[in-house]
Write the structure tokens for this entry.
Amino acid sequence: MKKMFGFYGILALVAFVSFVFAEVTKQDSKFMMQAAQSDMAEIMLGNMALQKSQNAEVRKFAQMMVDDHTKTSQQLKSMAATKNVTLPADVDAKQKYIIDKLSVMSGDKFDMEYMKGQVKAHESAVKLFQNESGRGTDADVKGFAVTTLPALQMHLNMARATSGNMKNMKSDMNSDNMNMNSNSSSSSNSNSNRSNSNSNTKRNKNSNSNTNSNSNMNRK
């Protein structure tokens, strides 16, 4: 009897474990894999920005990306292990293209492209987590999406603000350069007008002098 209870107990445990793993639907599994790749891309790009950028605002944002996405990445890995989901070991092709593209940039151009990309990346991430928050079937996976979503929305707002500040700064610099060029052109025209005026004055003096000389000769 004890052996029979032991045997049926093992079967019940196996059935329970199978039931738990079966709860992770294709949608939940796909979400976890995409979220993992998003974390990896953010960490890689954040570290790149910390190495390349000299902009304090960009560096602050990049450090937040590294810290926050490292934390969610660890949470996701722990959850995936309990759900029998194998997460990707690398970013996807689109993310790799962006990383490779930014790796050869530097200075203000890098800062602008990095922040521009961060706006797009977080728009996609927010949409991904919103979808899982509303349609997820696994309680743990859905809960992870719900609790992480506010931080992603905050990241998106910061990315937009930082990108906007940089565009305004660039616009102001272009405006200043235009004003400098305009002032330089005005100064050049003014100098040219003075030169022409002086030249005309000299011609008039010479003309008057010649007229007076000819007049004196005729009187004689």
Summary: Residues 14-22 have pLDDT under 50 and may be disordered.
